[in-house]
Amino acid sequence: MTAETARLLTTLLSLAEDTGSLSDELHFAGWDAAERVPLDHGAANVLRALVLPKAARVLEIGAGFGGLTRYLGEVSATVHAVEADPVRAAAVRFRTRDLGTVSVHDRPPADGYDLVVVQQPYATRSLLDSVRERLSPMGAVVVLTSSRGVAGTLAAAGLEVGRELLCSPGHEVARAVRSARIDTELPRLSAAIAGGPANGLALLCGPGAATLWPAFRLATYFNTAERAAFACTRADVVRTGDGAEVRRVPLVPSPPVAGISVGPCTDKVYDAPTMVEVLLDEPERVAELLTGWRDLVRAEAARGVEALWDLVPHNVLVDGATLRPIDLEWRHAGAGVPEVIERGVLVLADKLTGAGWSAAADGGSMRELAGWLGVLIGLHPSFVDGAVAREVAFSTIGSCGTAHGTDEIRAAIAEIWRTRLARTVHEYRSSKVDAGVAANEDEVAKR
Fold first, then answer.
1. Peptide linkage before 169 cis (omega within 30 of 0)
2. 3-state secondary structure the chain
3. What is the pLDDT of residues 68-92, one digit of tens each?
4. 77 contact partners, CB below 8 Å, separation of at least 6
5. pLDDT digits (tens, 9 = 90+) for 406-431
6. For the segment 153-188, what is each residue's pLDDT rounded down to a tens digit?
7. 24 — phi, psi (to 5°)?
């Protein structure tokens, strides 16, 4: 990071009215990755995933711009944040200025601590020796890193790694924090929640390490990217007596915004593909599965299910002959069965087009595919425009947290959908073929 970017971030933090760990003001303030990462809603997700000791005295080494510090100060009794760089230290002070729990230092104080958080660059042998001396008898150490090599340094300092957690895509802003056990026990779910390789690690050490991550938990994952704070959620994957469950809750329980909200939901884990996955492999089942899904929406509405808005095909598992809804977190007070069905067909067409669906007409557009899918279950092709307008309005509120003053965002989202509707399945197929050819050429070159 350049000195100019560091000064800009410090200025932003000094001027911000809301410096909380889930501040929308900060989350949407950054222009590029260097600015966005320290301000992101998910900057503290790795620590959110842990069970931190109550009334803890915490030492954080390498506070940076205060993303972790802010969260620690919100949930802990005392936080001593160490940051030697004066510009960054000023940023931490600005970010925590309304918290009486946090103080900023240029070197570790001599106190005893229940929890120590260390960022990778600072995990040297001499510093870790100092950490061990400051740790309370049942204290724990969390090292956030991208290298397993740190484990050897920890062991040499008398801090054996008690548990290793994988952070995807990395520990700086994690979508998923998981034990490696989930990869073998629930591989389909693990791949879905990780969304790619794990480039970060959380190494848990010290006498209290076991309490930070319950033995029955396999993973915790978050929806914090591109969402306003009112819509951010966490989901814990836990073992149960007869298998496993996903338990999802809002990070900040909030009132609805223009009738839109998220709520808690719990789903049993089934080793089954989604409707989208099945249609990609078995396109001939499209009429059967669409009709079954439409009837499922109607049946769930008759049962009084609140989160009907989320009952779209990619949230439906095909478990043999049974369709099972999952991940129903969004509530939309203004949407009934017709609106949900139209939304589901629109989003399904988007996903099938993006995957270059083999059953779609080669030169057909996403709009035409959506219209054809709709006809299969009794919709007129003209439904597309109304469904897009509702999706744009919903996405605007979900990403901004307000229905007012959002014209620029609304216009940008509308333009994204216009582009998607016009793009052809052939274009997606061609881009995938080109990517495959390029990958093969790279592999040949390596040989």
1. yes
2. CCHHHHHHHHHHHHHCCCCCCCCHHHHCCCCCHHHHHHHCHHHHHHHHCCCCCCCCEEEEECCCCCHHHHHHHHHCCEEEEECCCHHHHHHHHHHCCCCCCEEEECCCCCCCEEEEEEEHHHCCHHHHHHHHHHEEEEEEEEEEECCCCHHHHHHHCCCCEEEEEEEECCCCCCCEEEECHHHHHCHHHHHHHHCCCCCEEEEEECCCHHHHCCCCEEEEEEECCCCCHHHCEEEEEEEECCEEEEEEEECCCCCCECCEEECCEEEECCCCCEHHHHHHHCHHHHHHHHHHHHHHHHHHHHCCCCCHHHCCHHHEEEECCEEEECCCCEEECCCCHHHHHHHHHHHHHHHHHHCCCCCCCCCCEHHHHHHHHHHHCCCCCCHHHHHHHHHHHHHHHHHHCCCCCCHHHHHHHHHHHHHHHHCEHHHHHHHHHHHHHHHHHHHHHHC
3. 999 999 999 999 999 999 999 999 9
4. 55, 56, 57, 101
5. 899 999 999 999 999 999 987 766 65
6. 999 999 999 999 999 999 999 999 999 999 999 999
7. -65, -35
CA distance linking residue 380 with residue 393, whole number of Å:
22
**With contact defined as beta carbons under 8 Å apart, do 81 and 60 qualify?**
yes
- 369 vs 58: CA distance, rounded Å: 55
Confidence band for 444, pLDDT divided at 50, 70 and 90: very low
Q: How far, in Å, are 10, 267, 337, 441 from residue 45 at the CA level? A: 22, 22, 35, 38
Report d(CA 339, CA 355) in Å as an integer: 24
How far apart are the C-alpha atoms of 258 and 254, rounded to whole Å?
12
Q: pTM for this one?
A: 0.90
Asked whether the predicted pLDDT for residue 437 surpasses 80, the reply is no
Compute how many other C-beta atoms are within 10 angstroms of the C-beta atom of residue 212: 23
429-to-58, 95, 369, 441 alpha-carbon distances in Å = 52, 47, 15, 18
Question: Is it the case that residue 300 has pLDDT exceeding 70?
Answer: yes
In Å, the largest CA–CA distance within the chain is 72
Q: Which of 198, 205, 154 is nearest to 180 (CA)?
A: 198
- Whether residue 117 contacts residue 69, with contact meaning beta carbons closer than 8 Å, is answered with no
Q: From residue 152, give the alpha-carbon distance in Å to each of 178, 245, 251, 364, 412.
A: 21, 35, 35, 56, 49
99-111 pLDDT per residue, tens: 999 999 999 988 8
**CA–CA gap between residue 236 and residue 162 (Å, rounded):** 21
Contact by Cβ (8 Å): 153, 126:
no
User: d(Cα 213, Cα 163) in Å, to the nearest integer?
Assistant: 8
